[in-house]
Design a protein that fits this description.
Number of helices: 9
Shape: rod-shaped
Oligomer: single chain
Largest sheet: 5 strands, mixed
Mean pLDDT: 85
Order of helices and strands: HEEHEEEHHHEHHEEHEEHEE
Strand order of the largest sheet: 1-2-4-5-3
Bound molecules: adenosine-5'-diphosphate
Distance between the termini: 31 Å
Helix content: 40-55%
Structural class: alpha+beta
Length: 413
């Protein structure tokens, strides 16, 4: 995974945790309001029923307290109550029983005042008391619960604990996953750097071996057809190809590949690629048919890299074929660009592995031996795909097991 992708994963998971925490807080706030509403409702009912039971009959009516924020105000239909109500044990016992019945076992403060107090957490009931002159005056029976918030919090205990535990768990898991992702990424980068460095160190000795073989041929022409010389040349070429692929891919990954694009005839490029494969083709008695490539087709791209792309496809077509290789290359112009197909009569690719083969170091499992020619690191098609995408084109594979494969390459005009 690229550095930028890792950062995106880390940032998105951090945003996810924050979003989860915020949504949990909103949810808890909502639950708090609900619990508070239930509490208020119960107190109102308890207060009302106490006054009603004390005097008998239906007297109560729930209403909001006008003139203050979020209060509960219980309006009794103004009924005569004795002045010494606050000291009446029957009334007080009735109130405690009523609260208990409505599941509120909390300490409370009860008072009788002349003024209405519209405040949060104040519950009142309007009552009428006798005056000395024989008339009636309005008073307010007020109930306050000092420990109300603690009571509501306790009623939400399970929810709060569960929410905190879930948040801790999710955060811990995400931290762990992100930490191991960053660690893996660092490890992978170290390996890739080492691999690239090694490939870089290999390229000079491999080139020197190639040069030495050529000089040996010149000095001793008789050695030219010696089978051991062929082995050295072939194995050296194979290794050089792999090492070059590693270096190309490293440069592609770093975005350091500057293409040198120009117009050139496609058929000539393909013929050059086929000629460079002459030795393995002869060894396998393979055939490459270029008849369906029009002479006049021109491609705009980096000739060196596109030749390398087709060499890779030809190399694979030879490697992954049990029969005598019969390779057909065709090309046609489309309104958007040029479509080149490389088709073989090889072993094919199992359907579930067709997408994987374009990934680095991925090799398909074909089951059964292929005759020793299938060496490779699984880098060829990764290089081909990256290079074609750098040309703003694409590559597709169509395959039938034991019948053959066709790789279509599209290059935009
Ligand atoms: P390599 O050939 O070094 O393993 P490549 O990236 O070129 O790596 O190919 C990846 C895998 O795709 C190969 O290991 C092989 O299993 C499969 N493959 C590629 N080309 C063909 C083909 N023409 N026919 C069948 N299988 C193929």
């Amino acid at each position: 995974m690229r550095e930028s992708k890792v950062s995106i994963v880390v940032i998105t998971s951090a945003i996810g945790v924050i979003a989860l925490a915020v949504s949990q807080l909103i949810w808890m706030r909502h639950s708090w309001h609900l619990a508070e509403q239930i509490f208020n409702q119960r107190v109102s009912m308890a207060l009302c029923s106490t006054v009603e039971k004390y005097k008998g009959g239906m007297l109560c009516d729930n209403g909001a307290c006008s003139g203050g924020p979020g209060q509960q105000f219980v309006v009794s239909a103004g009924h005569d109550l004795p002045t010494e109500l606050m000291y009446d044990t029957v009334f007080l016992a009735q109130l405690t029983r009523s609260l208990h019945f409505h599941q509120i076992d909390l300490d409370y403060e009860l008072s009788l005042t002349e003024t209405k107090q519209c405040q949060v957490n104040v519950y009142q009931s309007t009552v009428l008391l006798p005056t000395e002159g024989g008339g009636r005056r309005e008073a307010y029976l007020r109930l306050i619960f000092p420990n109300k918030n603690g009571y509501i919090l306790r009623s939400m205990n399970f929810m709060v604990v569960a929410t905190i535990l879930i948040l801790i768990f999710v955060t811990a898991v995400l931290l762990l996953v992100n930490w191991s992702l960053v660690r893996q990424k660092r490890l992978l980068q170290t390996n890739v750097d080492f691999f690239n460095h090694m490939a870089h160190e290999f390229i000079t000795p491999l080139n020197n071996i190639g040069l030495a073989v050529n000089m040996l041929h010149k000095k001793h022409p008789a050695l030219k057809d010696h089978p051991l010389m062929d082995v050295i040349r072939r194995e050296n070429g194979q290794l050089l190809g792999e090492v070059e692929r590693v270096l190309h891919l490293a440069r592609l990954d770093k975005g350091e590949h500057a293409l040198q694009k120009e117009n050139f005839p496609l058929k000539a490029l393909l013929q050059a690629a086929v000629s460079s494969m002459a030795m393995p083709l002869t060894e396998r008695q393979g055939r490459v048919n270029l008849d369906e490539v029009p002479e006049d087709l021109e491609v705009y791209g980096d000739g060196k890299h596109l030749a390398s792309v087709f060499r890779n496809l030809l190399d694979n077509a030879l490697k992954y074929t049990r029969l005598q290789p019969d390779i057909r290359i065709s090309a046609r112009k489309t309104p958007q660009g040029i479509l080149v197909s490389v088709e073989d009569n090889g072993i094919g690719i199992p359907p579930e592995q067709r997408n994987l083969i374009f990934e680095k170091f991925q090799r398909a499992h074909h089951g059964g031996p292929l005759g020793g020619g299938q060496k490779g690191f699984g880098l060829g098609l990764a290089y081909v795909k990256s290079m074609i995408e750098l040309h703003k084109g694409y590559i597709r594979v169509f395959s039938e097991e034991n019948k053959g494969s066709r790789f279509d390459i599209f290059l935009p005009a």
